[in-house]
Amino acid sequence: MNTNIETFKYDNRIVRAFAIATVVWGIVGMLVGLLAAVQLFFPEANLNLQFITFGRIRPLHTNAVIFAFVGNGMFMGIYYSLQRLCKARMFSDWLSWFNFWGWQSIIVSAALTLPLGFTTSKEYAELEWPIDIAIAVVWVAFAVNLFGTIVKRREKHMYVAIWFYIATVVTIAVLHITNSMEMPWSWLKSYSMYAGVQDALVQWWYGHNAVAFFLTTPYLGLMYYFLPKAANRPVFSYRLSIIHFWALVFLYIWAGPHHLLYSALPDWAQSLGMVFSLMLIAPSWGGMLNGLLTLRGAWDKVRQDPMLKFMVIAVTAYGMSTLEGPLLSIKTVNSLSHYTDWTIAHVHVGAMGWNGFLTFSMLYYLFPRLYNTKLWSVKLANYHFWIALLGMMFYAIPIYIAGVTEGLMWKQFNKDGFLQYPNFLETILQVVPMFKLRAIGGTLYIVGTFMMAWNLYKTAKSGVFEPDTEAQAAPMEKAPVVSGKTAFHRMLEGKPLFFTVLAAVAVLVGGLVEIIPMFLVQANVPTIASVHPYTPLEVLGRDIYIREGCLGCHSQMIRPFRSETERYGEYSKAGEFVYDHPFLWGSERKGPDLAREGGRYPDAWHYNHLDDPRSTSPGSIMPRYSWLLTQKMETDSLPARLNALRKIGVPYPAGFENGPAQKNLSAQADKVVANLKQGSVKADADKEIIALIAYLQRLGTDIKSATVTTAAK
Amino acid sequence: MIYNIVHSLLREAENLNAYGLFSFFLFFGFFIGVIIWAFALKQNHLDKMGGLPLDGGECRDKSPDQIQS
């Protein structure tokens, strides 16, 4: 045994910094969410300002709660637990602070660019290319710091929490880089390298696994550290935690296509996504039971300790979400739930329950320890627990009801075989009361968070911050040669690089099996002869559609159900999207699908509808887009836009952008103006609304006289 | 009822082609391998691993009771 005990210090400053950032950004992100929620029943809450209109602040809310609230919470927990599990200070204080300030800068950039309309439109990956590069740089700094700490550790064995951290670091890097392949056309705007179906598959491979490897695996690692600490007993079954880890990281990545069921994605990929999603129940519930059973014999502590109360609900919410997720992946269930608020309820049980409650739990654990004192008010923390739980219920239950109502109403036929509710607006107005209840639930949850912030502030004031915690441990001995059944496991725990490679292979094999065939097998995207690239005016209009976040409420993907084809027209084909950089299928319907919107209404109807939706559709919850009537189109960048699109495969003729494109644009804009005049609307040809109308009128029109030819034929 | 559910799931999965079957067997083999490996580990090693979070090496350890109550 090594008697050469070393004394060293854990860095608490970085943990405190991330903890404060977690609380601050959590409140900001939740308030933005509340503002978005209110606009769904009171659209005037945007104060007619484009910067805080639903389409722009929805991605701000999702990015803020995922990357700012949970992201900072994740860093907080990892920086605290990793040092203690490795019995070593972080590898580099400089890298720790680079990680902190770099991450906060990214959040501030997001808070500025998203309301200004700079978005890629890809969900949870909306930030534009310079910020994407910054994320990659900061993430690499975090990875170097994490692996550096693991390498210089004094504890020979890597606890399972560290495995989850390693899987997170590796997978998020791969996902982020793959999904962020973009062709810039200005210093803040770009087009996705991928188009249509392939873009959709890559995006949801990313989107699903951002949930998996940003919201789940790091938090599972934190659960495996903080739950035993709080209960003061080891995890129920370490053996189960090993199975949980390997099965989960191997399985998760395959399930991405369940976000695209009944879409134009090839059937084999959809079925694969469904089957692997169902199999995910096993490791997820193994992990949940492992967490709950850790508290066996300690339930008396749960009654007294608010931190454990939050932890129990967090683990239970994890179990509920990971059961519901696979069930929603069954194609028949998904046919009802997709595009409805059911998905919103599902993700909020996960986000508010699993991530939110676990974060609150960690904060209540850490603040007294960082400030060497007791929690200021256990009573207030208990009030926080109950009000947050109540808030979550008030959020989730009405939105589940709303989701099921929407799904059923969209599919309902009358006895004569016609749609019972042909007007989409009718189905949304039916659930507006649920939207109001949801806002009350969200408010309660935020009130609870404010109570926690006050409690933590008073705790900090009542104690003295301990910037470093002194610790002692023996340096790591050279691993003895072990033979027999345990040898491989010990070798794996002792060699972080080898472990990382194995974990990366386990994680990535699923992605490779799904994505490589999608790119290599031509038959996966049947070509349609009549599908042509967008005109210059339509390109500008499409970029405005992206800027305003229209896909937050309007899908462009008609599924092959009679209820959809009756309402919207012919179902969507993979070949229709070959020039869509990025794809704009959307995942949510607060308004009707727009895939076949072209030619459905006259230009003047669109003009009036965008100016004031309630003038054409009484009761509509869509915000006014009156600024589109006055803002001028940005045509100077047209050559850069078309050039960028050509580089990524859109067949514009050589030199088209230098002259002919501008003439083409003017001619089409004049035509729209003439159409508007026929509808008694006077408009200038250089306004943004002209471009958006041109784009909307183009949607789905290619296929109307199409002859579909399959490349495979 | 259970038969109907299983039957329905299999019917929905019938479009799995070679990629799907390959994927399924790949996971199945991996999962069985992990199970065998995990159950082959010695109990004393598992006990030691499970106890790692409880020993953070702090000179002045703070138990939950000292802090919270």
Describe the structure.
The complex is a heterodimer of chains A (713) and B (69). By secondary structure, chain A is an all-alpha fold. Chain A contains 24 helices and four strands. In chain A, helix 1 (13-39) packs antiparallel against helix 15, helix 7 packs antiparallel against helix 9 and helix 11 (306-329) runs antiparallel to helix 13. The model of chain A is unreliable at 706-713 (pLDDT under 50). By secondary structure, chain B is mainly α. Chain B is 68% helix and 0% strand. Chain B has helices at residues 2-12, 18-40, 43-50, 64-68. Chain B is elongated and about 60 Å long. The mean pLDDT of chain B is 72. Classes of the chains: A mainly alpha (713), B mainly alpha (69). At the A-B interface, helix 2, helix 6, helix 7, helix 8 and strand 4 of A face helix 1, helix 2, helix 3 and helix 4 of B.
Structural class call of chain B reads mainly alpha
Indicate the proportion of strand residues of chain A: under 5%
Main sheet attributes: strand count, strand direction, barrel closure of chain B? none
Order of helices and strands of chain A: EHHHHHEEHHHHHHHHHHEHHHHHHHHH
Question: Which strand order does the major sheet of chain A show?
Answer: 1-4
Radius of gyration of chain A: 26 Å
User: What is the number of helices of chain B?
Assistant: 4
| Main sheet attributes: strand count, strand direction, barrel closure of chain A | 2 strands, antiparallel
> Which chains have the largest interface?
A-B, 73 and 46 residues
User: What is the H/E string of chain B?
Assistant: HHHH
Regarding quaternary structure, what we see is: heterodimer
Q: What is the 3D shape of chain B?
A: elongated
Approximate strand percentage of chain B: under 5%
Tally of strands of chain A: 4
**Tally of helical segments of chain A:** 24
Radius of gyration of chain B: 23 Å
Mean pLDDT of chain B: 72
